[in-house]
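One such given next:

>
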Amino acid sequence: MIIETSYMLAIDTVGHYCGIALSNAQDGSLIKKYVLKESNMHDAMLAEMVRKALIDHAIEPYHITAIAVSAGPGSFTGLRIGMSFAKGWCADGKTLLISVPTFDAMIHSLKNKNRNLMQETLCIAKLSHGNQWFVQTFDAKSGVKHNEVSIVSTTELDMSINDATIVIGDYKLEQQDSIYAEFNNSDPEFISQLGYIMLQRGETISPITADSEYHAAFIPTFQTSAS
């Protein structure tokens, strides 16, 4: 009997760049990731990137048995696009859906690559809008989260950072240790790595009730035409 390989598709649309990753759903090994280095092209290019990935690796859509999608926090529009695409794919009940907290995935990948961290606390600080930041802290030794994602002002963030803290994200990039630079932003490979672990734990969700983790209300911006 021929046993076909099953695959997991990871989707990351929380930032400026649209990214996907294909991995083996049976052992979690990465096959390839695709990242489009053009800002805010998620709606135009996500489906096309997935189509190209499947063609490149001779994978049929029914071979995708799980989709891991970056759930946020991040761009409101980007989150909606990624989650809507994943929910639509999984709506027939044949593909499992995994909603991956973005910051958890970033910390998991950092800890996996840099196991012996000397500091006490890991902090992710990603700019939301204006002087407001998405912030979450984790134990540097275990990777266990100290708290849930919160939104704080620049002043509050400044006051919470000390020498015992490793900061990744958008905060004071010129002062960050370069060894952590690759973890400053979400990445489809990060989503794939934690998504596979969540899949093994059975941490899947219904596409009917799934939603992104926005953490902040949508604030529309309007462009005015010159008179």
Notes: The chain has two domains: 7-102+186-200, 114-183. Residues 218-222 have pLDDT under 50 and may be disordered. The CA atoms of residues 119 and 163 lie 8 Å apart.
